[in-house]
Design a protein that fits this description.
The protein is mostly helical. 82% of the residues lie in helices and 0% in strands. The protein has two domains: 3-62; 77-285, MetI-like fold (Orthogonal Bundle).
Length: 287
């Protein structure tokens, strides 16, 4: 046991915690200062966790097959960039993006149809709740049998996972506008589509973006898990399952790091688009 490494890592983590406690209590006068603190706190917290992880794993000589230190994972990432890039293209740029766009788009369109048809609202929504509760491990093998081993079957799983959150949130959002606002549109002789475009969709936009943010993480999880059940020799899920069998845990963690980073960036992009589109909403304005 290397006591110096462990103590140093713990001291660094406690120091970073104290600095973060001080930062969150500051009251900056300008927006720039608030944004700087908002970025500094999670960054410092993340770095302190990595330092604590490194110190504990190396200080206690934890077997790398159980938990490799961050430095070992970083070295694996640097030395495996072509493999990680190919896996990223297969899983994220193909299965996730295509499935996400198709699932969310179809969910939005069907929500508009349900809004126009009480029959569909009573018949399809309960079915949607049932299908959304189906486990991925039950759906993925069936999709592989239907669509083959390539990315199309993974995109089909993503479509199923993202369709119903978008459907349910959009239907709820379309009902969010108040009766007084809808009565006002009727007094202006506005038809269904004018009311939908100018009143109900803007009122539903927070619900829609909530579904988009939820689906940004569900899509990546679904695609990776679906690759466990059959895929070409490329992809994040394929690499994780095969490298675990080979006891190359550092490569597994490298794939996990790439997946976490890409998922976080995807979520952040959707959040930025939400802020640009719903700038008028109190949740964005802070009022």
């Amino acid at each position: 046991m290397n006591t110096t490494l462990v103590i140093g890592a713990v001291v660094f983590w406690l120091s970073a915690w104290a600095i973060n406690e001080w930062l969150v209590r500051l009251k900056p006068a300008g927006v720039a200062g608030a944004r700087a603190i908002g970025l500094a706190v999670p960054f410092l917290f993340g770095v302190s966790l990595l330092v604590l992880w490194e110190g504990i794993t190396r200080g206690f000589h934890v077997p790398t097959v159980l938990l490799p230190p961050p430095s070992m994972i970083w070295a694996r990432i640097i030395n495996s960039l072509p493999i990680l890039a190919a896996d990223f293209r297969q899983t994220f740029l193909k299965a996730v993006i295509v499935g996400y766009a198709a699932g969310c788009g179809l969910g939005f369109i069907v929500a508009i149809l349900i809004d126009r048809s009480p029959f569909l609202q009573r018949g399809l929504l309960p079915l949607g709740n049932f299908v959304s509760a189906l486990p991925i491990i039950g759906i993925a093998p069936i999709m592989v049998m239907w669509f083959g081993f390539d990315w199309q079957s993974k995109a089909a799983v993503v479509i199923i996972m993202t369709f119903f959150p978008m459907l349910v949130n959009t239907v709820q959002g379309l009902a969010a506008s108040g009766s007084m606002e809808r009565d006002l549109m009727r007094t202006y002789a506005a038809g269904y589509w004018q009311t939908l475009y100018k009143l109900r969709l803007p009122a539903a936009s927070p619900f829609i973006f909530n579904a988009l943010k939820i689906n940004s993480t569900l899509a990546l999880i679904g695609a990776i898990v679906a690759e466990f059940f059959g895929t070409p020799i490329v992809g994040m899920g394929f690499r994780i399952s095969t490298e675990v069998g080979r006891m190359n845990v550092d490569m597994v963690w490298a794939e996990i790091a790439v997946a976490a980073l890409s998922g976080s960036v995807f979520y952040g992009v959707v959040t930025l688009i939400e802020r640009a589109v719903t700038f008028w909403h109190p949740s964005v304005r802070g009022g």
